[in-house]
Amino acid sequence: MTEQMDTNVWQVRAALCELLALSFRYPDSVLAEVVSSGEWVDAANELALAAGVDWAADVQESADQGDAEQMLHALRAEATRLFIGAPEPVISPYEGIWRAADDGGEALLFINPHSMEVERFCKSCGLSRPAGTNEPLDNVATELELLECLAARVALGEDADAAASAYAEFMTSHVMQWMPRFAEKVQEETRLTFYRQAALLLARSLDVLV
Questions:
Q1: What are the residue ranges spanned by the domains of the chain?
Q2: For residues 137 and 121, what is the distance between their CA atoms, to the nearest angstrom?
Q3: N or C: which end of the chain has fewer CB within 10 A?
Q4: At CA 74, angle to CA 70 and CA 78, rounded to 5?
Q5: pLDDT tens-digit profile of 71-106?
Q6: At 157, is the secondary structure helix, strand, or coil?
Q7: Among the residues of 52-109, which ranges form H helices?
Q8: What is the CB-side half-sphere exposure of residue 91 using CA atoms within 13 A?
Q9: 139 DSSP 8-state letter
């Protein structure tokens, strides 16, 4: 029974990380569809309940709903403003930028010790940058995808001890060093209900995901 319970916990963690990663990747038609249809909120409520995350009670606004094409345009406009910017984003989605600021300096994407450490960590777990892309691996969505992958390995019993150890190390050494502040900043700065809800879910989930 205990082993089955542990498996269920890791399955929920993997699913929650998957939803959060989808939420903070650059918006595509899949995200626009689930947000506009209300499926995102339904999935978030279900996973939060399963994980023991106190989230739904604090969601006082309904999700942004409407036409999926219009939603995609709105999501991309806000994601660009928040996370890409011109010339600077409102909020950096990269760990290395946050950690360099903590160290009292400026960081270039890729070329900073924290970003390089994430890159090495991902490679040690058998994960690398997809072919044809040039996205730093310390992006918030990519780090959540790594946690999803490791949690899924534990749930499936694939070298579970090593995967669980890597998961715990990455949470402590990387995710918890910056992502709580990232989530708080998104809640403060966003103009869209969706990103406010996603950031709140991320913030509330981090303590449970550890």
A1: 2-209
A2: 10
A3: N
A4: 170
A5: 999 999 999 999 998 778 999 999 998 988 887 766
A6: coil
A7: 68-79, 95-102
A8: 22
A9: B
**pLDDT tens digits for range 127-150:** 776 655 677 889 999 999 999 999
Q: What fold, for 2-209?
A: TorD-like (1.10.3480)
Amino acid at 162: A
Burial (Cβ within 10 Å: 0-12, 13-18, ≥19) of residue 134: exposed
* 205: Cα separation from own chain's centroid: 10
Q: Which residues contact 194 (CB under 8 A, 6 or more apart)?
A: 23, 35, 40, 63, 64, 75
Tokens representing 30 are 């899949």
Neighbouring residues of 30: CB distance < 8 A, sequence distance ≥ 6: 22
Which tops the pLDDT comparison, 155 or 60?
155
Closest CA to 147 of 187, 120, 174: 174
pLDDT at residue 193 is higher than 80:
yes
Helix/strand/coil for 132: coil
pTM attached to this predicted model? 0.90
Radius of gyration of the chain (CA): 17
Length of the chain, in residues: 210
Tell me the C-alpha to C-alpha distance, in Å, between residue 117 and each of 10, 75, 136, 156.
25, 31, 11, 27
The H or E element that residue 123 is part of is helix 113-124
Residue 92: its H or E element: none
For residue 19, give the nearest of 37, 36, 4, 34 by alpha carbon.
34
